[in-house]
Amino acid sequence: MDMKKIILIGLISILTLSFAVSASADTLVLRYNQWFPSQHWSQKDGLHKYFDEIETVTEGRVRVQPSAKPIVPPTKNYQAVANGIVDLAWGPHGYTPGAFPLSEMVEFPFSVHDAGASSVAYQRTFDKFFKPKGMHDDVVTLAVHVTSGGNLHMKNKPIRKIEDFQNAKIRVQTSVVSEAIKSIGAIPISGSLNELREFLSRGIVDGTSLSDELLTGFKVDSYINYVTQIPGGLYSNSAFVVLNKKKWNQISPTDQEAIMKISGEKLAYRMGSLWHKNDLIARKLLQDKLGENYKVADESLITGLESAFFKGRLDWLEKAEAMGVDITSANVYYEEQTNLLMQAQ
């Protein structure tokens, strides 16, 4: 090979390498705190597909990289994003009790019959009432959503009436539920989903309040022999998808706009509707497995639970009003939007 060809090949190699380095430098990588199992549908079919869409709509200029293992525990998700320890996170508001009082609006019982519709209604309520009052002020909110309603899953003794709560050790994940069941004699025990298997296997708890899907999705249904379904849920989780502000400001206005077009209500619906779909599947599996031990709560149990949550609702109204939120209007708006969306389906 003559010297001219050698020089030409060398120049081409240098130019190719230079282009690759330039392309890499033009890509902003966002670190996502992967604390949930990566193969769980909420990640695989929900958030990871959303991350793929971010890369697509920004033409590769923004890419999300899930961590190989949790960078921070789920209780630290939100603060880790605000502080820049991670760039992007998803998780329940209820893992940090008292930090997000406005989110408790959707955590009270009997309100979530379709998590897809309720998630869009919640996103609209957040944008209209909560965000203007400073909720999530220190991060960029990509979406808020709700999960399917939680039921009562017990190991050795079912809860069919209010008296059955007496001295029952029940794992909970929101302060709203904790205070309510404590008032009727139960012993609430806080803990994340990652701790639930140990709690059940070691007898630390007698049962858990959880959506059917998470019970089967986290493969802890083998410990459960009785389910009491609460129509509309004993609770629902309020969840967030948030991004660090400094990282957001490194994204061009054009790409920011493109990302927001696939976020907000669209992302809320994606997550909520997936929850609803998979919860119905899990419900059928549990009904087939447990037979008569899977029961819907009767009217007397619902009435008793309504009374148990009454004080919590009043306390929450006071907290929300102290933050300057017209909470009556917010509640009415949330219910109206949920009903409209369910009727439109």
UniProtKB/TrEMBL annotation:
It holds the Pfam family DctP. InterPro entries: DctP_fam (IPR018389), TRAP_DctP_sf (IPR038404). CDD domains: PBP2_TRAP_Dctp3_4 (cd13665). The keyword Signal applies. Keywords: Signal. The keyword Transcription does not apply. It comes from the Bacteria. This is TRAP-type C4-dicarboxylate transport system periplasmic protein DctP. The lineage of its organism: Bacteria, Pseudomonadati, Pseudomonadota, Gammaproteobacteria, Oceanospirillales.
